[in-house]
Amino acid sequence: MDRMLKTAKGEPDSDHLDFRYEFARKAIHLSSLLIPLIYWQIGRKQALLILAPVTAGFLLVDVFKHFVPFLSTWYHATFGTMLRHHELSRERLHLNGASWITLAAFALIAFFPKTIAVGAFAMVSISDTVAALVGKRFGRHRFGQKSFEGSLAFFVSAIAVVALIPGLLLPVGIVMAVVGTVVEALVLKIGNFRIDDNFSVPLAGAIAGLLCYTWFFPEALQALAR
User: Fold this and answer.
1) Any bridge partners for residue 143, and if so which?
2) Residue 8 CA from chain centroid, whole number
3) Which strand (E) or helix (H) includes residue 91?
4) 41: helix, coil or strand?
5) Cα distance between residue 213 and residue 69, in whole Å
6) Which of 83, 108, 105, 82 is CA-nearest to residue 94?
7) Is 9 helix (H, G, I), strand (E, B) or coil?
């Protein structure tokens, strides 16, 4: 069966960077919080018009670096110290975190109510950063490529994030935080192609939030859609 989801259990822990490089990577990652902050102030069409060329630009660089030698040399020389093991591969096509995060932002804005989209994206921007740094510095109880301490940090910070999103019902936010924490703890693959948690976490959280609204708070969902 070619298409399947796998966890990282049993795989070598090859994604870890030195703390200073992890910190630099997550500082850049945290800057993606500008996306939901800007989207909160503008409409969906405006946001997609802004985000579409940005997403396309990241994807083009990510794809062509595997086929254009000078682009590959520049890319690895500039960003190599902040890339994870699978992102450094020159043999297989792998997207980096920046491409995944912009793809996630585009999908969230295109397909979900603004409140859910902003909540899910803010969660991955902040909580993924907190989890990575806490796990790197204090992670002692490991499972696969993650740590219990990092996952706990993700969950606690995610609860704080969703609680601060205007208009997001707290029970829905808690469900989004739980789902996000579980998905962040996994390494997901379709065959040999790895799905980055910058994409899987916000999309899973948003889907969980939308389903929760649909099943338990349909009137509140109608209000979100206005």
Assistant:
1) 146
2) 17
3) none
4) coil
5) 49
6) 83
7) coil
Report the alpha-carbon distance of residue 43 to residue 208 in Å, rounded. Answer: 23
Beta strand pairing call for 193-195 and 142-143: unpaired
* pLDDT per residue as tens, the chain (226 positions): 333 333 333 344 445 556 555 555 666 667 788 999 999 999 999 999 999 999 998 888 888 777 777 766 766 666 655 565 555 555 566 777 788 899 999 999 999 999 999 999 999 999 988 988 888 878 677 776 778 898 999 999 999 999 999 999 999 999 999 999 999 888 766 666 677 888 999 999 999 999 999 999 999 998 886 5
Q: How many CB atoms lie within 10 A of CB 139?
A: 18
Please name the amino acid found at residue 129.
T
Rounded to whole angstroms, the Cα distance separating 61 from 156 reads: 35
